[in-house]
Amino acid sequence: MSQLHVVLGATGAIGSAVAAELGARGHRVRAVSRGGPGVRADVGTVEGATAACAGADVVYQCAQPPYARWAAEFPAFTRAVLAGVAAAGAKLVMADNLYMYGPVDAPLTEDLPDAATGPKGRVRAEVARMVLGGEVRATLGRASDYYGPGGLNTILGPNVFAAAIAGKTARWVGPLDQPHTVSYLPDIAAGLVTLGERDEADGRAWHLPAAPPVTGREFLRAVWDAAGGTPRSAGLGRGLQRVLGLVNPVVRELGETWYQRDRPFTVDDSAYRAAFGPARVTGVVEGVGATVEWFRGR
């Protein structure tokens, strides 16, 4: 029998993309979520995580607490998942982000210190240390803001793609002319699955391959080229973010990581490419076109 690859959070954007990539590579897949198709389990509990991970060879951790409750809930959530992975004797691959580095004025590399001072950045650093703490065989794949088919719970989904399809103003969060690395969901999935397949990935974090950085203006231009209609674009500045945050808790949360918006935010993925060879990376025009078609078909 082939190895069993278990995806936690399989109905989310990254989890569903990982499950699809695993299937395309011929792996046996168990898709786990709190609701929806596949196996249902609450992996935020030891019992749920243990049941979800039973028999697994590799577990992909793509589930997480609600964004606003990361600081309060992520450590206990991670301990439950680690217990489930340990009970199965499996390898853990965690879908991670870039919050732990804090403000950086150069391309982001994996050897940067955990310098975040905000609660979300600090807890992401804590969780990463837990995952790599030796309790299980583990690796982390880190990606920037994502977009792609299925990408709803992201600042590039409703604010940009859904708005453009509806003929409304597509809003880029932050200044329009700062370069910013964006990650395409199928590319994230491909990178995570490769980390799951390769033993040399174990024991550290990796920046997943992504296309070269683009400015908000360039990204929005690609969206409108694909969507058609009369382009209507704008940047969401810090002042407006503060005002909207008074009534919108999701927008309010963006203030903690505004340093990812007000300066170049570029990700160096050269370590991954050197270790694992040529990576599949989708150009922005192609990725945006596929994402527009997905949003149009909803």
Automatic annotation (TrEMBL):
Q: Which GO terms describe its molecular function?
A: aldehyde dehydrogenase (NAD+) activity
NAD-dependent epimerase/dehydratase domain: residues covered: 6-201
Would you tell me the protein name for this molecule?
A: Epimerase
In which organism is this protein found? Actinorhabdospora filicis
One Gene Ontology cellular component annotation? Answer: cytoplasm
Superkingdom in the source lineage = Bacteria
